[in-house]
Design brief:
Helices cover 33% and strands 17% of the residues. It is built from 14 helices and 18 strands. The strands form five sheets. The chain has a six-stranded mixed β-sheet, with helices on both faces. Strands 12-8-9-11-18 form a five-stranded parallel β-sheet, with helices on both faces. Strands 2-1-3 form a three-stranded antiparallel β-sheet, with no helix packed on it.
Length: 438
């Protein structure tokens, strides 16, 4: 914990009703209801003061809903592209890198921007699920993930001795690599091979029937969104103004919602412009449920057969983009974010993203994951098709990279599941076995 840190002062706001209220602990919804709606943080400090690089992600603590700080974080790093920008004929391409790229000062050792979520969410926790060794008497955090989120939370919780139960599809377990063995406070269960991220979410929901556990909350957790929003804070404070376009690949779309919310805070700050950057979000074909809903002009997701969805997930390279139940139509969610910013939902094929992946390595000198390669592929297509003006300020959110660089010469450790459950398990069995782990 940083010496002298005082909890951030903020309130919560119901996006639909506008009601503001105090955060009385681990709120994920407005306790007075009023229909489906995300809640949003309203910070007492309207003009952000950015701290030093040594503070990691907490250099943006003014706009993070946190009670403490944790050791080991790294903030997203933004730089102006030269090689890739020249190749694409772009005048103002800025890359916000999340991962391991020491030459650029980015040292996220899980190589993913999911670290921004984990360091914010875990710093929001109250004392009943807080820090220190031993888990007896404390509730256990539950996180469902397609891979990268699990790796980030596992690392942060292990380092800070926070009890954690991960729920991950068995087919994605190769994403749970670490440079050292994890603390015993981190446990893993999995949904059997053939399942996807939605099956992992279903598994976590069964665990949560036991009052021994509590949900991280996903997109509903303001700490998760505001942690991810630090990518936009990094870009804007580096550039000196809000970007014109924001490119990111999306699975749940939580990062894009976070970008939109950070944009609105920056407008209120008053020093970085008064415009909204256009959200240019992308999916990996053929798994494109948000693209299909957007093109149909539908706030609601279109019907998507479960078996067909699983087959489509099998085909895509970017497995982390495989959320079948994203926060798309909920007020304050993805649909509203893209609509409000006059943005677009796009897609790229595996072949297009693989070409983009190779281009980034060649011109920027570092490997990136398939998901940001999808975003880059759609940026390239948007430029070629005239969807964006070449001279505008473009922010490319590289949501993960540097894994190959990080792994060089290292012995890796893989977290193994304590239990693997069928895709339609018995609720009582899941809850009971989960409890036995703690």
């Amino acid at each position: 914990m940083m010496n002298g840190f005082k909890p951030t002062v903020y309130a919560l706001k119901n996006v639909v009703t506008g009601r503001e209220f105090e955060d009385e602990g681990w709120l994920l919804d407005d306790p007075q209801g009023g229909g489906p709606s995300l809640i949003r943080t309203i910070y007492a400090k309207k003009r952000i003061d950015v701290g030093g690089v040594e503070q990691g992600i907490y250099r943006f603590a003014d706009w993070l809903p946190i009670r403490r700080t944790l050791q080991g974080s790294c903030a997203p790093v933004t730089y102006r592209s030269e090689g890739l920008a020249k190749h694409l004929g772009l005048e103002n391409l800025y890359i916000t890198f999340n991962g391991y790229f020491p030459e650029r000062g980015c040292c996220m050792t899980t190589c993913s921007f999911k670290e921004t979520e984990a360091y914010s969410v875990c710093a929001r926790m109250g004392d009943d699920c807080g820090l220190g060794r031993g888990v007896e008497g404390r509730k256990v955090l539950v996180v469902a993930s397609a891979g990268n989120t699990a790796r980030a939370f596992a690392r942060v919780c292990s380092d800070n001795h926070i009890p954690l139960l991960l729920c991950v599809p068995e087919d994605n377990l190769d994403a749970l690599w670490f440079e050292k063995p994890l603390d015993d406070c981190v446990k893993l269960i999995a949904s059997r091979s053939g399942g996807d991220y939605f099956d992992a979410i279903h598994l976590s929901n069964l665990v949560l029937k036991s009052n021994r556990f509590f949900a991280e909350g996903g997109a509903k957790n303001v700490a998760r969104r505001d942690g991810m929003g630090t990518t936009v804070l990094s870009a804007t404070t580096f550039i000196g103004r809000i970007p014109d376009y924001y490119f990111q690949a999306v699975g749940s779309g939580t990062g894009a919602i976070a970008a939109w919310e950070a944009n609105m805070r920056l407008i209120e700050d008053g020093r970085f412009g008064s415009h909204k950057m256009k959200l240019m979000v992308s999916q990996n074909y053929p798994f494109i449920p948000m693209f299909n809903a957007w093109k149909a002009g539908s706030r609601e997701m279109l019907p998507y057969d479960d078996d067909r969805a699983r087959e489509d997930v099998e085909e895509i390279e970017a497995k982390v983009l495989s959320n079948r139940r994203p926060p798309y139509g909920v007020p304050g969610g993805m649909y509203d974010a893209v609509k409000d910013t006059d943005g677009q939902v796009l897609y790229a094929t595996n072949a297009e993203s693989n070409r983009a992946k190779a281009l980034f390595l060649k011109h920027e000198g570092i490997d990136i994951y398939h998901a940001p390669a999808v975003a880059l592929a759609t940026l390239i297509k948007a430029v070629e098709e005239g969807l964006v003006e070449r001279d505008k300020i473009m922010m490319l959110n590289v949501t993960g990279g540097g894994e190959e660089r990080f792994m060089q010469g290292k012995e890796l450790f893989y977290l193994q599941p304590s239990f693997v459950f069928d895709l339609n398990p018995q609720a009582e069995e899941v809850a009971s076995k989960a409890e036995s782990l703690f």
